[in-house]
Amino acid sequence: MMKRENSNRTRIVGLRLTPLEYAELEKRFRASTCRKLSDHIRRHLFNKPIVTTYRNASFDDYIEETMALNSELNSIGNNINQIAKKMNSFKTISEFKTQVFWFEVDKKKLFEKIEEIKIHSQKFSEQWLQL
Which domain of life is it from (predicted)? Predict the structure, then answer.
């Protein structure tokens, strides 16, 4: 059985900080990948590497646009499902023809959005990979 890393940690060190100092410590801790504040402090004290996270603005923009496109695709998909449900309940040809028309309109929107997603993904890939 593997021994826990902190099993021999029996000594406690108390430290007082000003609110400003604590806020700075908290900010650095939140930016790191450490799960516990004590791990973060220990790494800093003993000059161990601290992995920090960062936000990539281009990726944030990509995610935002992708979420908007996803929302639009969900709306189009719902419309198509409603049309299919209605089409299965029709008794006359004219009702059926009307729904086929709206189905074609939504199908065109769907393919336009799919093309937009392809272009969007291609732009992001080129930017990310710096092609």
Answer: Bacteria
For residues 41 and 50, give the distance between their C-alpha atoms in angstroms, rounded to a whole number.
10
The three-state secondary structure class of 103 is helix
For 23-68, the DSSP string reads HHHHHHHHHBS-SSHHHHHHHHHTT----B----HHHHHHHHHHHH
User: Is this prediction's pTM over 0.85?
Assistant: no
The rounded distance, in Å, linking the Cα atoms of 47 and 27 is: 19
Tokens standing for residue 61: 């923009």
- Each residue of 74-107: pLDDT tens digit? 888 888 888 778 777 777 788 777 888 888 888 8
3-state secondary structure 16-34: CCCHHHHHHHHHHHHHECC
Domain ranges of the chain: 15-54, 57-129
- The residues near 77 (Cβ < 8 Å, ≥ 6 apart) are 110
